[in-house]
Amino acid sequence: MQALQILIDGFAISTLYALGALGFTLIFGVSGVLNLAHGGLLVVSAMVAWYVGTALGADAWVSAAAGIAAGLAVTLVTYGAVVRPVQRSRAIPGAERELFVLTATLLWGVMLQELLDYWFSDTPVAVKPLLSGTVNFLGVRTPINEFLTAAIAWAVMGLLWLLVNRTDIGKRLRATAINPRALTLLGFDLERIYLVAWLIYGLLAGIAGVLIGSFLGSGSSYIAGLTGSAFTIVVLGGLGSVSGTLIAAYIVGYIETLTAYLVSPALREVPALLLLIAVMYVRPQGLLGKR
Amino acid sequence: MQAFRTQNILLLAAVLAILVILPFGAGSYVLGVLTTAFYFAVFAMSWDLLFGYAGEVNFGPTFLIGLGAYGAGIGNALLGMPLPVAVLFGTASAVIGGVALAIPALKLSGPYLGLITLVAVLLLQQAIVIFAGVSGGEIGLSVPSVLSISSKINYAYALVFMVVSGAILLTIARSSLGMILQAAGQDRVAAASLGFDVTRHKILAFAVSAFFSGLAGALLVFYLGTASVNAVVDLAIGIRVIIAAVMGGRRTIIGGAIGAIFLIVAAEILRPLGQLSSFVVAVLALGVIMFFPDGLLGMIAARRRS
Fold first, then answer.
1. Dist. CA B58–CA B72, nearest whole Å
2. ipTM of the assembly?
3. Per the structure, how many domains does chain A have?
4. Nearest residue in A to B236, CA atom
5. Is residue A181 part of a domain?
6. B41: number of CA atoms within 13 Å, CB side?
């Protein structure tokens, strides 16, 4: 009985972790950017969905769409106003550009948090669920929304897989990840490929943010934690490896759920962090990382 | 070049002179703000030794600061150590933590090390909450001893501490240790093939950085009268330390102090804006980092040259 509950809850949480971390690993794989404002993008989407749904009283699907649109918009601002200027700056030496991207996105995350505090206060909120009610699943009462959330997350991940592996755009994205210079030599416009990657990232962040917000709640104080868990999952799985990210998300999600149910909810994050340190010592490139 | 250096030293001396005579004119509120800023300056300067010179991406300055602060707090409040002994105890805990952090740094670099240092902070934070009986948990740990109740004396302690730490860190950074660290940061194999013991130097760099971070954290506890997660461990504090060092001018040591004082004083001046003040400070910092990557110190130097 409790085992089944852990299985279901763990599955839902792990799926959301996977979806939340996927955009982070995609944008690192394609353009080498570690976006430390990642949690900010998720929370902005959730807060806008909450505002439209609860404060303005709109339909749950309309508010979800508004949240996704907000996530996409703030992701494009992140690229256009923070990441791209740093990447193109002549004043910053090439070897240190990566570090400046880290610092700039870190600051941008702080700014998003301050703005959200200012507009919405720092009280955590819950995004309206897309479907209400519960079902009795093999004797466990589970909200329908939990199943819907997992289904949507898997559908989105399936679509992303098709896009990356079965289309021309995907081929270009994969080629950029391997050798951007060769692509430029072949006459492709790198800027446009990066823009496409950020668009996909924005949609992923928007969807993940809204779904996480309806399942776990959201608030400006969640930003650092969400960035941290995406970072943890992605490094555990191997930076830039999509299948590694999925596996790591399920490992972390289930370890956390097991700890929360069997040991104590207060210790929820600890075993996964210890596991991460152990993996880093034995296999620094992560589970499926190549390097 | 020589003239330019002399001018810089004169400017620094002038700023220090103003800071020294300030207690005779300023109120205790201004002195209090600056006292905190001076401790922050030491945090930022010791971070710069690791990042600017050794090239180590340390996202967890508050791991070392927190160990120093809580070590000193627990030593004083629970083990009954007198203040100086407690400060030494906290500093020693931070140095042990620093060496522990150096072990992964020997194997990992860049974002991987960044994540480990981040995880170290999260684990310390969790440990403080879990062992609330010893650490005071989320409320914080009050210490019975204080450095001084006079704001002027506290200010003097902090100022002297900052100047002495800055001078020592700058000397270390300019010494052969600093050079070897820079060389190892840029190309580890090349530095090792020249016969330098990279491992020993890296551990030394972490130990020195941890020593000053921990000492500053321990002293800050006896200035504030309490050790709390919000004041010395929280990631937000670590982010502020990193931003201060990069904004002031990385690989300069002194830049860290300038950035820290700038950030804290700017936040104080913008206080009338209410909640938006930290946002404005962040915008300023982002602007400096983007348009003047060499930081505030670099800006001054660039204006001199033109």
1. 23
2. 0.84
3. 1
4. A110
5. no
6. 27
